[in-house]
Amino acid sequence: GYNHRIMRYCDNVEHGFVIAGDKYEIVLDTIAAIAEEKWEKLKKRKKRSPAIEEEVAESVHFVGPEKGGKAYRFVVTRRKNNQLALFPQYEYTYRVYFTNTDWDKHKVVHFYRQRGDAENVIKEEKEGFAIENILSADFLANAAIFQMQLLAYNLVQYFKYTNLKKSWWNLRIKQLRFRLINIAGVVVNHARRTILRISANYKYLKTFREIYHLLCIKRIKLLI
Q: Where does the Transposase DDE domain lie (predicted)?
């Protein structure tokens, strides 16, 4: 949310910030006062960005109590709702970005959206790597376990980005386990070779083979 104490602290230590939220009711009157000609089409950061039309504008709003608050610049995006609204103020869905930077409004939006995925990372670490579980009564032991869990998370991310196709990069560890690890197979020895037999009906057999051979090549390079 828009905590004026955090904003004031960032100002005092000269840290730039961009703080966003969906609760735009506090600035709805200010948004309504923005002239229609001040709205402009939000520039797309990438050529293949989703074809969702958004507009962007900026204004200033006072945040905090009357004595301890301060006026801050905010950038706002709006997206037209598909459903017809009874009242004009509900014709659009807004998202507000408070900032103390002097960046162009387009840069403010794209900067935040590039970094707004932190909550998903935390969720993955908690649910996929059990970071939320305290396994010991010893502080140092928990610290060591925590570091290993973070290392495991980072190794999985490295594995995805260096060995998997781009469409797999956003998969969570549970999905990777289901597709590549928790699969039925039989390990047999034949002619001095160890062979892993997997069903020909295995949905991701082609991908599994590609990754396996890629890792084998990397292992040979390391041995050399």
A: 3-213
pLDDT tens string 133-188? 888 889 999 999 999 999 999 999 999 999 999 899 989 999 999 999 898 889 99
Distance between CA atoms of 168 and 183, rounded to whole angstroms?
18
Q: Are 104 and 45 in contact (CB under 8 A)?
A: no
The C-alpha atoms of residue 142 and residue 2 are separated, in whole angstroms, by: 33
Name the β-bridge partners of 70: 63
Helix (H), strand (E), coil (C) string for the chain: CCCHHHHHHHHHCCCCCEEEECCCHHHHHHHHCCCHHHCEECCCCCCCCCCCCCEEEEEEEEECCCCCCEEEEEEEEEEECCCCCCCHHHCEEEEEEEECCCCCHHHHHHHHHHHCCHHHHHHHHHHHCCCCCCCCCCHHHHHHHHHHHHHHHHHHHHHHHHHCCHHHCCCCHHHHHHHHHCCCEEEEEECCEEEEEECCCCCCHHHHHHHHHHHHHHHHHHHC
pTM: 0.56
- CB burial of residue 39 (10 Å; 0-12, 13-18, 19+): middle
